[in-house]
Protein: Probable GTP-binding protein EngB
Organism: Coprococcus aceti
Amino acid sequence: MIVKSAELETVCGITSKLPDNDLPEIAFAGKSNVGKSSLINGLLNRKSLARTSAQPGKTQTINFYNVNKNLYFVDLPGYGYAKVSVEIRAKWGKMIERYLHGSPQLKKVFLLIDIRHVPSENDCMMYDWIVDNGYEPVIICTKLDKIKRSQVQKNLKLIREKLDLVPGTTMIPFSAQTKQGRDEIWNLIEETLAQ
Ligand code: GDP
């Protein structure tokens, strides 16, 4: 897809009403610091439209990016940041669930997992929420450039096993640095829009 325009259109806080969009939505979920902003910027060819920061956990909102006036990228709040209170973490969870549960335009969910690490309990919970809401998430394994090529298959297998992925689930290794995986992700988005 050629990205002609991309802008942050709506920012929803914990208690805000979700927008009544009439364009298809593609959502991105993952724990803080997994590389979600970098992925969104990489897909949109923007340097800093989505925030990338050294302060994980800052995004407590659901952000809707209008892409080409044709679809929305929905940036779900990063979870699992150790320094926030249990109460705030629970609120984020509710917010994410509310979105997953009540979004008729949501066509595809990407769940981001750092390719270097075995998924956390929060990752497993997020995966289960997505599946329980009727979506089959695509797993994007981020920071691909940070491991040796010879490690890739082994790590993908560990992630698959820990999340207990539904057989046939697509996993896409991605690097924001080399952009490896970018075309594959866009192909999937385009296929989804065509359905
Ligand atoms: P977010 O909290 O999930 O939005 O994560 P960010 O996109 O802000 O990324 C967190 C940190 O990881 C930043 O320092 C990024 O530069 C770095 N990062 C993200 N993706 C990659 C990647 O593919 N390769 C490398 N080497 N670093 C990455």
User: Anything to note?
Assistant: The mean pLDDT is 91. The domain at 6-13+21-194 is CATH 3.40.50.300 (Rossmann fold). Residues 101 and 133 are 6 Å apart (CA to CA). Residues 30, 32-38, 52-53, 56, 78, 142-143, 145-146, 175-177 surround guanosine-5'-diphosphate (CB under 6 Å).
